[in-house]
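seq as requested:
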Amino acid sequence: MQLKTYSADSLRAALRLARVELGADATLVDSKEADGDSGPRYVATFAVQAETEKAERRRTPDGRHWRTFVPPEVRTRPEEQPALEAAPAPAPGAGLGSGATAAAAPARALEAAVADAQPAEPPPVEHRAYAPEQPALRGIVIQLRALQSAVDALRRTEAFEPRAAEPSSAVEQALARLQRAGFDLETWPRLRTELQQEAQAGRNAFELVEWLRRQVSARWNTAASLGALDRPTVTALVGPSGAGKTSSLLKLAVQYGLRRNRLTHLLLADPIRWGSAEAMGAQAEAAGALLTVARGPEQLCDRLERVLEAAEPDELVLIDTPGYGPSEASRAADMAAALAQANVVDVHLTLNAAQGDGELRRAVEAAAVFQPRRLIFTHLDVTTRPGAVWNESSRSGLPISFLGTGPRTPDDLRAANAGRLTNLLFAG
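struct tokens:
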């Protein structure tokens, strides 16, 4: 049996490719969904009988069999004709002479040859175990094995037939796809009802998933920008410790400053990291940015005012703030007041997408004092529940600006868009 694998945008497309190349006898053996740059792809494996198997099935078994048709030209070959027996000696006193006896011998031989050419009666069935050396059964066994393979393949592919889906099972399959990614169904209360309506309209399980992808893609809220280029832009990153604020800040400095030939200024407003200002200065220099350090909220307004006084019309100012724990609410309020006094309105809340829903929800609630305008999600390369991105964006109502997908600077910080987020959610 010959196996061949095809990759296409849909299972129907793969089936058409197989039918064109392998013929109508091609049988679907296995299929799975794979990820591609432009969306999911389906990898399907088809089987078709090799020419040797077809020839084996058509081969006439050795020896005569009552269910096997033997053409007349084969039955009348000289080597298969019965040997003519000599006429018996006439009995004493027979009424025929020796000449008559000799004349009757050819007639009896012809009758024997005609009788031998008639189809043989079916032999008695012998109940014994099959042995490969029995040529009369080899063709039947090959046919039975091929039939069993076809039945197994049909059972495996029964769900892929483009018939109307059972509403209960098809809806649950589509919902399970989202729930495996950590999607909270409470963020979309009518989702189950809408899926049931689509299933009752005749959509199968795969069509429901495609419908769901389109609906999710249309509901993402994204805003990937850092202000206008005709005036100075001041952006602050806030969030819990370990969320990736500093690394995201450096990546933004390269992407929106260095690569766009735009003067960039980094303002470090973290008194705890005052001793690491030298190391931060080296990183800022590598990113093509200037560095200014403020000793906490009390110096933030003064330092920012000086930076803006000397700023170019299109200068980019990025502010790195410390992370605050649950017991540091008063310090967080002081920093938020300083940012508000400095008229910093473009505040991005940076969150670690690898954390659980509970931790992310508490981080969003704690950061409400900063009045963030957008969300940055990091550590998407290590999270197993990307549905948390949807959950927190839906609950907070804040748009998503950027996605951190790894440690490389600056390529592992990407602008958020609906297509990228949808692929992330349906990747599992």
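The first helix runs from residue 11 to 22.
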